[in-house]
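Example 9 (inverse folding). The structure is encoded as follows.
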């Protein structure tokens, strides 16, 4: 629990640095190179650090210029994972169905990983249906609504034309290593 609090504190320091706070900027400018320069020693001393750092360093996380569609897909996946955790816990509590509506479809899909089966299940069972429900909002979005891939021959927005892009985005998100402390987008 203390590590989560440290992660939250570092997140606040980073936000303050982005807002122009001099002390937070100075702190981060010292901390980041110090950890970067000691990474080899940490890797030799700590197996968990070595394997996790290797996975994180090679992973392609979204950048600040990421597409709004990717952000939406990422949010949908995170919400579905949270809903699943609640449902899994609720299954173990008698009479929980009086408070929490069971969703067998969500529980039936495999965990999100880089297998074709999992990617297809999450794309077709979770992400695409939730995006389709918001098709009108996507159509009005200044960037998503004007994607050339989404427009039919008459220039009309069709979410179905984005399905390959949606699947590709789910696949990219599925390959990211799990994060426990920081939400790296």
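The amino acid assigned to each position is listed next.
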């Amino acid at each position: 629990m203390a590590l989560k609090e440290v992660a939250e504190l570092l997140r606040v320091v980073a936000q303050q640095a982005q807002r122009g706070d001099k002390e937070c900027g100075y702190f981060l400018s010292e901390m980041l190179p110090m950890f970067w320069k000691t990474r080899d020693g940490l890797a030799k001393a700590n197996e968990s650090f070595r394997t996790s750092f290797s996975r994180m360093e090679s992973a392609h996380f979204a950048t600040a210029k990421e597409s709004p569609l990717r952000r939406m897909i990422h949010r949908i996946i995170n919400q579905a994972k949270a809903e699943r955790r609640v449902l899994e816990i609720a299954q173990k509590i008698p009479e929980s169905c009086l408070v929490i509506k069971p969703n067998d479809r969500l529980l039936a899909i495999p965990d999100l990983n880089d297998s074709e089966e999992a990617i297809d299940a999450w794309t077709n069972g979770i992400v695409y249906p939730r995006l389709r429900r918001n098709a009108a909002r996507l159509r009005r979005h200044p960037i998503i609504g004007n994607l050339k891939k989404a427009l039919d021959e008459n220039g009309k927005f069709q979410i179905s034309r984005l399905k390959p892009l949606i699947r590709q985005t789910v696949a990219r998100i599925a390959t990211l290593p799990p994060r426990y402390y920081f939400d790296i987008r």
